[in-house]
C-alpha cells in the first residue's frame, strides 16, 4: 500500500440524481411504488425469523425501531442493522428475476439510448473515476486490468469502462431481459445471464482482476462466503463493494409511512462503517478507497413535498417548501456524508495476499 492510501472521499452533487428520481416525485407514480413496496413487505413478513446477525453471526439484539410492522435490530457486536426476517432465496427470486426483470427494469427506467447514456453520465462515470484514481494510487494501470461487474443491470458501468478504453469488461446479470437490452445498447456481447445461485459456480473460474459489486452484496444469501470465494480466485486483485448504509433515511421512512421508501424496503439489512470494515477484515480485504455519499437529504425534501401534496396544501406552499429546501440539500447531505452516515458507501478493497 502506498503512502497516499487509503483515498477517502465525501459527497457528490444531487442535481443529476434528482432528474433520475423524477418518478419518485410524481404523486401518482409514487403511490404505485408504495403499493409495490407493500406487496414486498407482505412477502418479507412471511419469511422465517432471523436468528443471528446477517453480517457477523452474533445473536440478534433487541429491536431498535419498528417500521411497517417489521422490527429492525442494530447488532450489539458489529452494529449491522438487521430486519427481523431471514432473506431466503424465494424472497430474492421474487424481487429480482421471477418476472424476468420487469420489476428491476422499471426501476432503472432506461427505455432508450438517451436515458441509458444519461445514467452512465450521471451515475457511473464518477464511480469509474473513483476506482481509477485509487488503483492508480496503488501503483497499477487501471486500463491493464480485466473487470467483471456482477449484477450489472443494463451494463451502464460496462459502458463507462468501454468509454474509458478498458477492453476487458464483462457484466453478469440475473434478469434475462436486461441482458438482452443491455447487449443491444452496448453494441456487443458484453453481458451474460447469471442467476444469483450460480455465482458460486462462476467465481472460481472468473478471469477478472477487478470485481465490482454495486448494490449487490446486500442481496446475496451469504455475502461473506461469496467475498471469500472471490478472494480465493488468484486473479482477483480488487473488489469494489457499494452497499446501502444505516442512515437517517431509515427514520425519514419511519416518520413518513405514506411516502415511497427508497432505502430500507427492498433492503432487509444495512451496513455501517463498522460492520462493513469488520466484514472486509475477516475476509482479508484491505480498504484502500472509501467514498461516502447518499440521498438522505433528497429523501427528506421529497418526503416533505409528498406529504404537503397528500395533506392537500396549496400549491404555493409546496412551491415555498421547494424553494426553501432545494438550495439546502447538498449542504445537509454533506454533513451526513462526513459523519459517515449517508445512505450509501463505496469501498474499494484490495485482496490481502
Ligand atoms: Zn453483527
Name some characteristics of this structure:
single chain, 353 residues, alpha/beta, Rossmann fold, eight-stranded mixed beta sheet, four-stranded antiparallel beta sheet, binds zinc ion
Oligomer: single chain
CATH topology: Rossmann fold
Low-confidence stretches: none
State the domain count: 1
CATH class: Alpha Beta
Q: Give the biggest beta sheet.
A: 8 strands, mixed
* CATH level-4 homologous superfamily: Vaccinia Virus protein VP39
* Secondary structure tally: strands: 12
Q: Tell me the β content.
A: 15-25%
Ligands bound, unique: zinc ion
In the CATH classification, which architecture applies?
3-Layer(aba) Sandwich
Q: How large, in whole angstroms, is the Cα Rg?
A: 20 Å
Q: What proportion of the residues is helical, as a percent range?
A: 40-55%
The overall average pLDDT, rounded, is 92
Physical arrangement of strands within the biggest beta sheet: 1-11-12-9-8-5-6-7
Overall 3D form: globular
The CA-CA distance between the termini, in Å, is: 12 Å
User: H/E order of the elements?
Assistant: EHHHEEEHHHEHEHEHEHEHEHEHHHE
Number of helical elements = 15
Class from secondary-structure proportions: alpha/beta
Explain what this protein looks like in three dimensions.
It is a single chain. This protein has a single domain, classed as Vaccinia Virus protein VP39 (Rossmann fold, 3-Layer(aba) Sandwich), CATH 3.40.50.150. The protein is globular, with a radius of gyration of 20 Å. A hairpin with a 2-residue loop joins strand 2 (65-67) and strand 3. The chain is an alpha/beta fold and 353 residues long. An eight-stranded mixed β-sheet has the order 1-11-12-9-8-5-6-7, with helices on both faces. The protein has a four-stranded antiparallel β-sheet with strand order 2-3-4-10, with no helix packed on it. Helix 11 (248-255) packs parallel to helix 13 and helix 13 (296-310) crosses helix 15 (329-338). The longest helix is centred in the middle third of the chain and has 25 residues, at 113-137. The chain has helices at residues 15-20, 22-25, 27-45, 89-96, 102-108, 113-137, 156-163, 176-186, 199-202, 223-232, 248-255, 273-283, 296-310, 315-325, 329-338, and strands at 7-10, 65-67, 70-74, 81-83, 147-150, 169-173, 191-193, 210-214, 238-244, 269-270, 285-293, 344-351. Bound molecules: zinc ion (ZN). Residues 53, 55-56, 58, 75, 77-78, 80 line the site of zinc ion. Zinc ion binds at residues 53, 55-56, 58, 75, 77-78, 80.
Amino acid at each position: 500500500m502506498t503512502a497516499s492510501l487509503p483515498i477517502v472521499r465525501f459527497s457528490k452533487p444531487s442535481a443529476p440524481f434528482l432528474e433520475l428520481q423524477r418518478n419518485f416525485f410524481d404523486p401518482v407514480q409514487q403511490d404505485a411504488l408504495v403499493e409495490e413496496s407493500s406487496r414486498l413487505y407482505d412477502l418479507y413478513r412471511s419469511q422465517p425469523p432471523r436468528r443471528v446477525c446477517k453480517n457477523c453471526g452474533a445473536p440478534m439484539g433487541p429491536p431498535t425501531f419498528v417500521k411497517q410492522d417489521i422490527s429492525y435490530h442494530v447488532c450489539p457486536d458489529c452494529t449491522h442493522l438487521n430486519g427481523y426476517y431471514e432473506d431466503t432465496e424465494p424472497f430474492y427470486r421474487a424481487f429480482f428475476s421471477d418476472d424476468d426483470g420487469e420489476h428491476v427494469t422499471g426501476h432503472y427506467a432506461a427505455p432508450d439510448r438517451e436515458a441509458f447514456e444519461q445514467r452512465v453520465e450521471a451515475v457511473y462515470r464518477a464511480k469509474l473515476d473513483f476506482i481509477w484514481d485509487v488503483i492508480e494510487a496503488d501503483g497499477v494501470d487501471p486500463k491493464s486490468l480485466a473487470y467483471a461487474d456482477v449484477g450489472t443491470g443494463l451494463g451502464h458501468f460496462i459502458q463507462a469502462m468501454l468509454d474509458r478504453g478498458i477492453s476487458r469488461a464483462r457484466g453478469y446479470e440475473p434478469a434475462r431481459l436486461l441482458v438482452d437490452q443491455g447487449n443491444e445498447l452496448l453494441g456487443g456481447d458484453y453481458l451474460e445471464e447469471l442467476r444469483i445461485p450460480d455465482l458460486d459456480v462462476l467465481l472460481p473460474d472468473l478471469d477478472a482482476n477487478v470485481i465490482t459489486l454495486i448494490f449487490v452484496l446486500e442481496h446475496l444469501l451469504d455475502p461473506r462466503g461469496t467475498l471469500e470465494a472471490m478472494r480465493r480466485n488468484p486473479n482477483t486483485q480488487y473488489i469494489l463493494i457499494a452497499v446501502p448504509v444505516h442512515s437517517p433515511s431509515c427514520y425519514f421512512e419511519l416518520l413518513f409511512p405514506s411516502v415511497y421508501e427508497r432505502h430500507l424496503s427492498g433492503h432487509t439489512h444495512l451496513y455501517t462503517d463498522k460492520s462493513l470494515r469488520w466484514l472486509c477484515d475477516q475476509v482479508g480485504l484491505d480498504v484502500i478507497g472509501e467514498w461516502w455519499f447518499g440521498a438522505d437529504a433528497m429523501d427528506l425534501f421529497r418526503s416533505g413535498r409528498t406529504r404537503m401534496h397528500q395533506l392537500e396544501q396549496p400549491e404555493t406552499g409546496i412551491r415555498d417548501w421547494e424553494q426553501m429546501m432545494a438550495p439546502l440539500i447538498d449542504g445537509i447531505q454533506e454533513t451526513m456524508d462526513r459523519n459517515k452516515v449517508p445512505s450509501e458507501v463505496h469501498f474499494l478493497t484490495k485482496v490481502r495476499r
